[in-house]
UniProtKB/TrEMBL annotation:
PANTHER family linked: CENTROMERE PROTEIN E, KINESIN MOTOR DOMAIN-CONTAINING PROTEIN
Keyword RNA-binding: no
Protein name as catalogued: Kinesin-like protein
GO cellular component terms, semicolon-separated: microtubule
Organism taxonomic ancestry: Eukaryota, Metazoa, Chordata, Craniata, Vertebrata
């Protein structure tokens, strides 16, 4: 088991316009825990940010300034999670921040340059490279891609997407089993055997997401997207299978209703996003407080789906994306505050191992057979149904290997089944009879017999020679 708090990182997005000086500073040296200081300019301190404080300091496991490229982000944030995922632990990386702060750029990447590939494509590339290198296990990889919009789940990889709109497809819903495990109904799993196949699925999902989006319904800022890699691994011949899930999550924009609320539909939608993030915050507050027994996961679909990632069986990492411009300071501060709470949450990741049911069935069938035999023996009720062809063949094979076995200790084990015991005797009798007939044949063939008698003949020959010698001696004596 690996006990670990949720790891928090901050990433500062390059500003759209020229950089405004003096708004933040990063201190890397402070006892090895880097901290980010946000400095509120005097003209904002009394009004916009409703607080007299002039600076706020937040600690993170790592802070990545504007110049940090996608490769650095992958190496420092995603690679360690991918490594433990490959070892069999669940992993989650989620990006949290206001719209335009770089969540999608960080999780998926930018479309313009190859070097702008984000965490998902880089992680897929890394995972498949590692799987290729490791021939000691049999791996199976599946991909799913879920979008949660207005508390409704949509399967971004549903093959019927092309024919119909998001709303017409069956909704993804949550089912909970008696062990409180979450299952997602109507979310398709697609096997991917190569990096390319997995990337195509990512591309398909992102395209489906874009098709569904209209200016009135800016799904990308209002929805949560969860790209999941499901990995199972097994050593050849072993019945134990390991399962792990890696969620790569692009959350909805964390800005509050006050800023986006313009009435009507938009307001309703904005409230919904915030409701979902509001429930996420509730879960995080409950988890970060000691002695809270009830965690309100069930309040929203997102917190239900990410239940294991938040205070459960998972290694979780949060990336706070920040757009540190003057007008965004209040949102940036609340993003950092949220992160500080998240950092208090403790997770316990375990290896998810289970026994392959097919191998268990085989084992149980054998046991049932043995028990039946034993029962028949104890109750004295012999089993009368005839042995099947397969059983007879199996017995004959057993006899053959028993006869061939040079080990004097070897035994012919057929269980306590009189039918089998009888059959063994019959078969042995048959073999013996066959051997006899064969044996008679060998007696009548002379070559072999002569071979056997050769040493005897030689002895006789020597004897005769001795006698001959004796006689010669006698003759020569008489002659003398
Ligand atoms: P979000 O998903 O949080 O709404 P995006 O990822 O879409 O934000 O980012 C908004 C814009 O900023 C995009 O055009 C994106 O390409 C750009 N951007 C975000 N982060 C970076 C970065 N670190 N480097 C360069 N461009 C970035
Ligand atoms: Mg986005």
């Amino acid at each position: 088991m690996v006990k670990q708090t949720i790891q928090i990182f901050a990433r500062v997005k390059p500003p759209v316009r020229k950089h405004q000086q003096g708004i933040y500073s990063i201190d890397e040296d402070e006892k090895l825990i880097p901290s980010l200081e946000i400095i509120v300019p005097r003209d904002l301190a009394d009004g916009f940010v409703n607080n007299k404080r002039e600076s706020y300091k937040f600690k993170f496991q790592g802070i990545f300034d504007q110049d940090a490229n996608q490769e650095i982000i992958f190496e420092n944030i995603a690679k360690p999670v991918a490594e433990s995922f490959l070892a069999g632990y669940n992993g989650t990386i989620f990006a949290y921040g206001q719209t335009g702060s770089g969540k999608t750029f960080t999780i998926t990447g930018g479309a313009e340059r190859y070097s702008d590939r984000g965490i998902i494509p880089r992680t897929l590339s890394y995972i498949f490279e590692q799987l290729r290198k490791d021939s000691s296990k049999i791996y199976t990889t599946h991909i799913s891609y879920l979008e949660i919009y207005n508390e409704c789940g949509h399967d971004l990889l549903d093959p019927r997407h092309e024919a119909s709109s998001l709303e017409d497809l069956p909704k993804v819903t949550i089912l909970e089993d008696p062990d409180q495990n979450i299952h997602l109904k109507n979310l398709s799993l697609h096997q991917a055997t190569t990096e390319e196949e997995a990337l195509n699925l990512l591309f398909l999902g992102d395209t489906n997401r874009m098709i569904a989006e209209t200016p009135m319904n800016q799904a990308s800022t209002r929805s949560h997207c969860i790209f999941t890699v499901h990995l199972s691994s097994k050593e050849p011949g072993s019945a134990t299978v390991r399962h792990a899930k890696l969620h790569l999550v692009d959350l909805a924009g964390s800005e509050r209703v006050a800023k986006t609320g313009v009435g009507g539909l938009l307001l309703t939608e904005a409230k919904y996003i915030n409701l979902s993030l509001h429930y996420l915050e509730q879960v995080i507050i409950a988890l970060s407080e000691k002695h809270r027994s009830h965690i309100p996961y069930r309040n929203s679909m997102m917190t239900s789906v990410l239940r294991d990632s938040l205070g459960g069986n998972c290694m979780t990492t949060m990336i706070a994306t920040l757009s540190l411009e003057k007008r965004n300071l209040d949102e940036s501060i609340s993003t950092c505050r949220f992160a500080q709470r998240v950092a208090l949450i403790k997770n316990e990741a375990v290896l998810n191992e289970e026994i392959d049911p097919r191998l268990v069935i085989k084992h149980l069938q054998k046991e049932i057979q043995e028990l039946k035999d034993e029962l028949a023996m104890v109750t004295g009720e012999p089993r009368t149904e005839a042995l099947t062809e397969a059983e007879l063949l199996q017995l004959e094979k057993l006899i053959t290997s028993f006869l061939e076995d040079q080990d004097p200790e070897s035994r012919l084990e057929v269980g306590a089944d009189m039918r089998k015991i009888h059959h063994c005797f019959h078969h042995l009798k048959k073999l013996l009879n066959d051997k006899k007939i064969l044996g008679n044949n060998t007696v009548s063939s002379e070559g072999k017999d002569q071979d056997c008698q050769e040493p005897l003949k030689e002895e006789e020959y020597r004897k005769l020679q001795d006698i001959l010698k004796q006689r010669d001696n006698e003759i020569s004596r008489h002659a003398a």
